[in-house]
Amino acid sequence: MIEAGQLVLVINPQGKRYMHTMDPDKEIHTHDGRILMSDIAEAGFGGIVRSHLGHPYRVLKPTVYELIKGVKRQTQIMYPKEIGYVLLKLGVTPGSRIIECGTGSGGLTLALATYVGDTGKVYTYERREEFYKNAAKNLARVGLSHRVQQHLGDIETDGFEETGADALFLDVRTPQDCLRHIQPAVRPGAMCGFLLPTCNQVSDLLRGLEQGPFTELEALEILVRRYKTVPDRLRPEDRMVAHTGFLVFARCMDNPEPFVRAPKAPVGDSDPALGPETDPEAQPSADDDAEATE
């Protein structure tokens, strides 16, 4: 039995989807007729319910992927293919405190709020009021408002209110102009991510990161090519969503001094106390072993 307040997804055989919050006293209006929510509650997740015209619909519990795809959009949202990598790269886990800027329609915000759990918090900044309000509605619709603290303002001039955050993500036009505000807002060694649509914007950001307390720079894009699910003629689909954005990552360090490996001691100058068998510089590395076997 599905309880009131839970999100439900009903799908017809052609793949048409309707997502609603369970209210046994209401009904869903579809192209195939009306579906009573009391019937959906009785059918349960995985069950079949029929419209008043007799058309079948499967009842499902929506996944995070489906929740993201279902947000009401006023802006372009981040695709799940990028969001998955962002979550892993930023190290988002239950209890994490994450700063986000560029809330937009709240697609990434929703994912972050899901994975920080009730013991974590997402602090999201948006400078446009209409986007701020729409994101608030999207979060309320999926029951995640309590895990998110929204800010309406411009971080480029005002910076962040939080300190000691575990990670940070910026989806703004000129993130290089906001870099000076990052170090006071995050803990030392925190991962920072950025989303940009064009190559020249990535170049501008990389130049800025090289001038600040940032290490481990990475720039990439993620492509997904789907296949036709027909066993007898398996092949890629004719069309794909190719470039959607570039991702850039870096660690924000407390100590801006360069971190480089100490130079090797000249041959014959190793510590006599270690001897040739225990001198770390004299021991072959895993890479050396691999080269020796080629």
List the helices and strands and how they pair.
Blueprint: E1 7-11, E2 17-21, E3 27-30, E4 33-36, H1 37-43, E5 48-50, E6 56-60, H2 64-69, H3 80-90, E7 97-101, H4 107-116, E8 121-126, H5 129-141, E9 148-152, H6 155-158, E10 165-170, E11 186-196, H7 199-210, E12 214-220, E13 246-252, H8 275-278, H9 286-293
Parallel strand pairs: 7-8, 7-10, 8-9, 10-11
Antiparallel strand pairs: 1-2, 1-6, 3-4, 5-6, 11-13, 12-13
Task: Describe the structure in your own words.
With about 290 residues, the protein is α/β, with parallel strands linked by helices. It folds into two domains: about 5-60, Vcp-like ATPase, Chain A, domain 2 (Roll); about 65-250, Vaccinia Virus protein VP39 (Rossmann fold). It has nine helices and 13 strands.
Which consecutive residue ranges, at least 5 long each, have pLDDT under 50?
288-294
What is the CATH superfamily label of the largest domain? Vaccinia Virus protein VP39
Number of domains in the coordinates? Answer: 2
Radius of gyration: 25 Å
Number of helices: 9
Name the overall outline: globular
CATH topology title of the largest domain: Rossmann fold
Mean pLDDT: 90
Taken as a percent bin, the fraction of beta residues is 15-25%
How many DSSP E strands? 13
Q: Under the CATH scheme, which class of the largest domain?
A: Alpha Beta
Topology as H/E string?
EEEEHEEHHEHEHEHEEHEEHH
Give the spatial strand order of the biggest sheet.
9-8-7-10-11-13-12
Structural class: alpha/beta
Biggest sheet layout: 7 strands, mixed
**Approximately how much helix is present in the residues?**
25-40%
Would you identify the CATH architecture of the largest domain?
3-Layer(aba) Sandwich
Query: Span from first to last CA?
Result: 62 Å
